[in-house]
Structures are given as C-alpha cells and as structure tokens.
C-alpha cells in the first residue's frame, strides 16, 4: 500500500479534532492541529491572540509547523497518516483576514501535496467558542469559503464528510480511503 497523508479541513468548530481524537483511539497515526499550541505559547508570553495581533508571525509559525508535520508523516512507518489542518489552511486564513504573505507560503502549498482531503462542513449545532477559538459562527462560514477556494486552487478534490455521529463520520472517512 502506498503512503497516504490525509488532511482533515474545515472552518472552526466543525469537529476535526474530535475525529482526530477518535482516529487516535482506534490506533491510527494522527497529527493534531498546531494552532492551539502556538496560541497557548503566545498567551504564556503575554500575547492574548497572536493571530489577531501579529497574523504574519503566527502564520509563519503555523506554516513551519505544518511543513514539519508533513515531513514527519512521510517518515512514519504507518501507511496512513491523518493530519488536522494542512499547509493551504495558512494561506486561506491570511486571505480571510486580507493580509499579504510571502511567496514561500504559495510555494509550500505547491510543494507539499496531501493524498486525500476531507472537508467538514460548518455545523452550528456543534459549534463552540473557547479561549483559542475567537471566531463566531458567521466568521466560521466565511473561513470555510476561503478554505474551499484555497484548496481547490491548489488542485485538491475535496471530499465532504456528512454531518453525522462521530462513529458514522469515521466510517465514512475510512470507507473513502
């Protein structure tokens, strides 16, 4: 079996991390979303919302981390690796806020390609804000639009995961791989 690096994408609060946690519980190799880690580290340094206060620095840190995740995934002994959010997410979020970014952001999107991309749709009933997720549901819808546009621009065929129970969503994903 050929190595599959599978990315789960979607706006904030669509259930990506819940699915990643369930895949981990089932023994799959998974890499978590790193933006929470970057945000928490910044908060420990006294920067409440690094993405809002210094979006380019935040995005550079995410891009670096997501490239490292991709490179590590290639080296994993497992044939299937799931990643919570991918490299093009960084570009989509920068487009969402309307900020410019260096050319190496685009190059990274072109150079590192995921095998399959599953997109989770906005789902107001499960959406929750917290200390690291500052967006409201309407903003999450706009972010979703940017994610679809960005991944499509880089040639990805997005596989939409239906709104359903965690179990059924997992079965849907596993059936598609």
From TrEMBL:
Q: Which SUPFAM superfamilies match?
A: P-loop containing nucleoside triphosphate hydrolases
What Pfam families does its record include? AAA_28
InterPro entries membership: NadR/Ttd14_AAA_dom, P-loop_NTPase
Tell me the domain of life: Bacteria
Q: Where is the NadR/Ttd14 AAA domain?
A: 6-169
Coiled-coil annotated spans: none
Task: Identify this protein by name.
Answer: ATPase
Q: Which organism is it from?
A: Flavobacterium pectinovorum
